[in-house]
Design a protein that fits this description.
Elements lengths: L1 E11 L5 H11 L3 E7 L2 E9 H14 L5 E10 L7 E3 L20 H7 L43 H8 L20 E5 L4 E4 H13 L4 E4 L4 E6 L3 H11 L7 E3 L3 H7 L4 H7 L6 E5 L23 E5 L4 H10 L3 E5 L11 H7 L6 E5 L11 E5 L2 E6 L8 E3 L9 E4 L9 E4 L2 E4 L9 H17 L5 E6 L5 H8 L4 E4 L1 H13 L5 E11 L5 E9 L3 E8 L2 E2 L5 H4 L1 H13 L7 H4 L4 H12 L6 E2 L2 H11 L11 H8 L12 E4 L3 E4 L1 H12 L4 H21 L5 E5 L6 H13 L3 E3 L11 H7 L4 E2 L8
Parallel strand pairs: 2-5, 8-14, 10-12, 11-15, 18-21, 21-22, 23-30, 25-29, 25-32, 30-31
Antiparallel strand pairs: 1-3, 1-4, 2-3, 6-7, 6-14, 8-9, 9-13, 10-13, 11-12, 15-16, 17-20, 18-19, 19-20, 23-24, 24-25, 26-27, 28-29
Helix pairs in contact: 5-9, 13-23, 15-17, 15-18, 18-19, 20-21, 21-22
Length: 767
């Protein structure tokens, strides 16, 4: 099967033989397409068999011209267009050049060699960098990107650094963060009160000793603080969970090298490339079974990712990390330095206050971080990168779009409430901010407003149209209203689908499927199981799940058993007070109160959310009745799936002015299987399979061949993979996200994508 890959490469890739190299490699692999050079980078499109395209991607990294430097490498798979040959396209002069701010870049091989060379003047200096690596986005105050416009402006270069900086033949020519032990930033170790314990190399040595002894360290890095403990120390991990109020949500791990990662996780060729890339994200990898683990002195605590078959792992990406990890030589927990739902700390004095009672010691430095930037999270799905959190290494690089309507309009989209990002459209580029997070605290909201002001200033925006979410209570939306700004509102699930369509860059009509936990519907109710028609100019809402109630509102999200009660009420009405399943979870008096709440419409909103249905089933089959973090019940349900189960439950599509998916028979089927004593894994698999068949059957009701999959539920890899496979089996073309998060981190991009879409009524019979 022929596929097309679109690759964007930025860095020192012009005038170094890069395009001829790409041409020769593509010709060797019998690929068709082009390579094109512009002020924004090198752009490649290539068509061929998937295995050849995969080899092409990996070999570009490995075999590039020795004098070329790649600072950013992003790729997406798109529909083939039928190229007949591979050519080097002529470079064209551009009318307007928009300055690009590069992301922070992982330490390059040249700097690493110097870092560990005892004869080098930057030996073990934790701020070594050059033109090809180091901080960018987190230190820049304004454009142009010159040292006086960065947080390095107060560090006067010593004569040796100044000589390197001004020498066109030197690797540090115009490296704005250039520094050395004589003139650059320095490290200090503080105790929990801010008293200096030690400095420079001694501070690093003592930090390692403290981690080894089970202490919690707050370490200032590139885009903020990490909270660090020894991942093999059960008590240390337990202590961090308790102090951070993070009961079960997985922690990220940092390993010294790829070989140690392979001891604990299965790593594919593409996953290894991703781990070693300049973006250096957290990569989700499947844990090896105990039987696959080699005998080792190291054992990662089960508390790192409880009851989770995956680990989120990364390699060191700053000189400081490399020094620490080489000395420790074991995996560490490296989780965001914040309290739950707050943005990551970036200032040492702020960290001292906000992380008080969590960190025992603070390893700090005096290079100011001007904006927070968390670690990105990525996984590989169907041989493609699938970004879950877009931040360090990716933000704020633009996504190039084909946007014909109102191409000169400047738009800022403010995203949703959870996993917030903002996006800015200028001409045919959409600049996507770093992950901001949940706008539920004052700190998060301050980070949100600062990011908006940042983008307006950096990209010189004046006449701006703002776009926000339709939900009247989202803080991002109320911000627009309170500021009396020129704004436009877009329905949440339409934003998801529009984002997926724009990212996949095709024209024409499609069926969009948007499943998630919560979104404000066009009818004012809680949506989350939506099917939309979408084309280049319009949209229409086609259908959703049958409604149910959420007794106690948001409390039901934290207690899936309440959602289950709401679901069973739709089937059994008041008889739920005698339901044996619910009586194992509630006192009868509580069930009577729930019935009363629903009947009297007291704090029990109507809901059609797929995410909440996952929660209800998780409770129904005995997986969990409580969620300690967003999506936990659904994750546990996914992880319980038994392999090689292909059965599914009956369901009904009820056609009126919209198609309603009636899940009643699904729930009754689950209850029947429970009574027969079938195991949870089989029930979970059958439920997931049923939801896939719902999508396939819904798609069969229309003539659309292209199916868009978006929303937080499609972070469920079993659901996503099986849906893709089944749609392809039935002759459909499924599309899913790659560079843009499928969760609410992609909402701001989708708001821009949906900006010009108009709602229209459709005659079902003609579709």
């Amino acid at each position: 099967m022929i596929e097309r890959v679109k690759i964007t490469i930025r860095g020192a890739v012009q005038g170094v033989g890069f395009r001829p190299f790409i041409f020769r490699l593509a010709s060797e692999l019998n690929l068709k397409g082009y390579v094109h050079n512009s002020s924004k980078g090198v752009f490649i499109e290539a068509e061929g068999e998937l295995n050849k395209l995969k080899e092409f991607i990996i070999r570009i990294d490995k075999e590039k011209p020795s004098i070329s430097i790649i600072q950013s490498f992003e790729y997406s798979f798109l529909d083939p267009v039928g190229y007949e040959e591979f050519i080097i396209q002529r470079s064209e002069k551009e009318d307007e050049i928009t300055a690009l701010i590069l992301p922070d870049i992982a330490t390059c091989e040249d700097c690493l060699r110097e870092l560990f060379d005892p004869d080098d003047r930057r030996y073990l200096y934790p701020f070594i960098n050059c033109t090809n690596c180091g901080p960018r986005f987190t230190i820049i105050e304004s454009l142009p990107y010159d040292r006086p416009n960065t947080s390095m402006k107060n560090f006067k270069m010593c004569p040796e650094c100044e000589s390197e900086y001004n020498n066109p033949l030197d690797r540090r020519f115009h490296a704005q963060p250039i520094a050395c032990p004589v003139c650059g930033p320095q490290i200090k170790l503080w105790d929990s009160t801010g008293e200096i314990v030690s400095e420079k190399q001694k501070a690093i040595d003592q930090t390692c000793e403290l981690v080894q002894s089970g202490k919690i360290l707050a370490i200032k890095g590139l885009g903020g603080f990490h909270l660090v403990v020894d991942a093999t120390n059960e008590q240390a991990v337990f202590s961090l969970r308790k102090k951070k109020h993070r009961e079960e949500k997985p922690f990220a791990l940092m390993f010294p090298d790829i070989e140690m990662i392979k001891q604990f996780c299965s790593v594919s060729e593409l996953e290894e490339r991703l781990l070693k890339s300049l973006e250096s994200p957290i990569v989700l990898l499947r844990k090896k079974e105990n039987s696959q683990l080699k005998l080792s002195e190291l054992k990662i605590s089960d508390l790192v990712a409880p009851d989770n078959p995956y680990l989120g792992v990364m390699l060191p990406y700053t000189p400081l990390h490399h020094i620490l990890m080489r000395k420790l030589n074991k995996p560490i927990v490296a989780t965001s330095g914040n309290l739950s739902e707050e943005p990551i700390c970036i200032d040492e004095y702020e960290a001292l206050k906000r992380l008080k009672g969590i960190a025992d010691y603070f390893l700090v430095h005096n290079r100011p971080i001007l904006r927070h930037c968390d670690d990105s999270i990525v996984r590989i799905v169907k041989e493609r990168e699938f970004i879950i959190r877009r931040a360090r290494g990716y933000a704020p690089l633009p996504y190039l779009i084909d946007y014909e309507n109102e191409s000169d309009k400047q738009i800022i989209a403010v995203g949703g409430h959870l996993k917030n990002t903002i996006s800015l459209k200028k001409n045919n580029q959409v600049f996507i901010s770093q992950h901001i997070g949940d706008l539920s605290t004052a700190e998060s909201f301050n980070a949100f407003t600062k990011t908006i002001n940042d983008f307006k200033s950096l990209y010189e925006f004046n006449k701006i149209t703002f776009v926000g979410d339709l939900h009247p209570d989202y803080l991002s939306t109320t911000f627009l209203k309170q500021q009396n700004l020129n704004y436009h509102l877009v329905q949440h699930h339409l934003s998801h689908i529009a984002a997926c369509k724009l990212e996949n860059q095709f024209k024409g009509e499609a069926l969009g499927v948007s499943w998630d936990g919560t979104g404000f519907g066009l009818d004012g109710k809680i949506w989350g199981s939506e099917f939309f028609f979408i084309d280049d100019e319009s949209f229409s809402h086609l259908g959703q799940f049958k409604k149910f109630h959420l007794p106690s509102g948001e409390k039901a999200i934290r207690e899936p058993k309440r959602t289950l009660a709401g679901v069973l009420f739709e089937i059994f009405n008041e008889k739920i007070v005698e339901n044996e399943i619910l009586l194992s979870k509630f006192a009868q008096s509580e069930l009577k109160l729930i019935v009363d709440m629903i009947n009297k419409k007291i704090n029990s909103p109507e809901c059609v959310s797929a995410g909440r249905l996952f929660d209800a089933v998780s409770s129904l089959i005995g997986i969990t009745d409580h969620s300690n973090f967003e999506g936990q019940a659904a994750m546990k349900l996914e992880f319980a799936i038994k392999e090689n189960v292909n059965d599914f439950y009956e369901f009904e599509l009820i056609k009126n002015d919209k198609i309603i998916i009636d899940w009643t028979k699904i729930i009754l089927g689950l209850i029947d299987d429970l009574r027969k004593g079938k195991d949870k894994g089989a029930l979970s698999a059958k439920f997931h399979n049923t939801l896939v068949e719902v999508i396939v059957e819904f798609a069969k009701q229309f003539s659309f061949k292209k199916i868009l999959l978006s929303g937080g539920c499609f972070q469920n890899i079993y659901l996503l993979n099986r849906t893709i496979d089944r749609l392809r089996e039935e002759g459909f073309q499924p599309y899913w996200h790659q560079r843009i998060p499928t969760n609410d981190g992609g909402i701001s991009f989708g708001q821009i994508a949906a900006f010009n879409l108009k709602e229209k009524k459709l005659d079902f019979k003609k579709l």
